[in-house]
Amino acid sequence: MENRTARLTLLIDPTKKQIFEEICARRDMTSSQVIRHMIREYVLKHGTPEQLARMPIHE
Question: Is the pLDDT assigned to residue 42 strictly greater than 60?
């Protein structure tokens, strides 16, 4: 994980949030861990070579 962090705030339907948190808990992961993983996968799939070069190697 990076040394510095930035906050990302989003709005979500309460029912979807509850279901998401239940699924995360069942997998013994926090919602933050899952969201960070999803963002990393999205960036790896859609980022430009220049953007990918700025990605931390170890997360």
Answer: yes
